[in-house]
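Lecture notes, unit on protein representations.

Consider one protein chain, 196 amino acids long.
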Amino acid sequence: MKRAHPRNLGLTAAACVVFVGGMVGATFAAAPLYSLFCQVTGYGGTTQRADAAPATISDRYVTVRFDSNISNGLGWSFRPLQREVRVRLGEVGEAKFVAENRMSVTTTGTAGFNVAPGDAGLYFNKMECFCFTEQTLKPGERVEMPVTFFVDPAMVDSVELANVTTITLSYTFYPAATPAKPLASATVAPVAAEKL
């Protein structure tokens, strides 16, 4: 039986290490890259962020409906103050949501969001939103949370959205991930010195 040359074994081992390293790197990069992809393309109803409204306002109107949901375990009530608003493309709209902690302890939630139809996410821009930060509510505390948004006038050029007259903005509040608590340090009793 012919033995492999040590140089070939070294190259094979190096290639395996590079391959495994690349796969581990791709695993860690997958979530941020997917998030970036969704933000850039609006895939899956991911909305956009904007600092200012566009300079032009279209004559085309769209109705924006608001949907609210609560994940199990949060113990809040959560709802929009109005169910829908009608805005022109490029016009800044505002909606307010109300959250109330019905638990007897302080809890923290974070909101996930999307729009439907999913293709509208590329044109739906939020300027102010409670979904960008965690929300902490004391027992019985009630808070109003605004959302300021506009639908990009460029949506008039979208063939896929030509007949869309309604966009639904949906939020779901989840319990915020709590950081892991450190393990309690063990107390060790001092050992008595042996007498010689």
